[in-house]
Write a structure and sequence with these properties.
alpha/beta; about 25% strand; single chain; globular; 9 strands; 6 helices; seven-stranded mixed β-sheet
Length: about 220
């Protein structure tokens, strides 16, 4: 049953939602349990932080639904030793989850003010293994590459070539493939000759991936 707008809930509500969405990795579920989403949403939406739904942030963007973030992260199969690239920081919730499951995270956000928000919120949460960069995420983060895993939180019709180049052989990449507003979230593996699609995780709705190797900024 969905909580009313006056009920705030807590991380355990999102753990239950992630389980219901099919997440079984106990490390991922523990990261959801340990991460206070209320610290990673705009203050005016804090009362909805523990409802499993996207929330609006500036520039017409939205945060990813928590259970969907958990599914995407689970598909990366993190062991705790990885260097992970995140494209699209939002307000930092997904980066906070990954930070609890990997050795190092580099998060690239095209909107500088959102990158600043992500840095501030991660610092307030005591998370120190995330580097937040303001820039074009479709170009990856070549100065920090290669990466063992990459997660892209916006939709485009193909994986940007720089991301393929910066992913180690054997690494996994998860990205919504489509034009934005209705696409398939696809998990890939990097093989010696390029990306191999492994499976479609779920249909979903994401904002468009903007940048040199994505959609043009309007």
């Amino acid at each position: 049953m969905r909580r009313s707008d006056t009920e705030r809930g807590g991380p355990e509500d999102l753990v239950l939602a992630a389980r219901a969405a099919g997440v079984t990795d106990e490390r991922v579920l523990a990261a959801v349990r340990a991460t206070p989403r209320a610290r990673y949403v705009p203050a005016e939406h804090a009362f909805r932080a523990y409802v499993d739904e996207p929330l609006p942030i500036p520039h017409g963007q939205v945060t990813t639904q928590p259970s969907l973030s958990a599914r995407m992260i689970e598909a990366l199969e993190p062991t705790g030793e990885e260097s992970v690239l995140e494209v699209g920081s939002g307000y930092g919730y997904q980066a906070a989850l990954i930070a609890r499951l990997a050795a190092r995270v580099v998060s690239v956000e095209i909107w500088p003010d959102l990158a600043d928000e992500t840095r501030r919120r991660l610092e307030a949460d005591g998370i120190g293994n995330v580097t937040v960069l303001a820039g074009d995420g479709t170009e990856g983060a070549p100065g920090h590459a290669p990466f063992d895993a990459i997660v892209v939180s916006a939709a485009f019709t193909e994986v940007p070539p720089p991301l393929v180049e910066q992913l180690r052989t054997g690494g996994r990449l998860v990205q919504p493939i489509g034009t934005g507003g209705g696409e398939d979230v696809v998990c890939y593996r990097r093989d010696p000759d390029g990306l191999t699609p492994l499976r479609v995780l779920t249909p979903a709705s994401f904002v468009r991936l903007v940048g040199r190797y994505g959609f043009p900024r309007e």
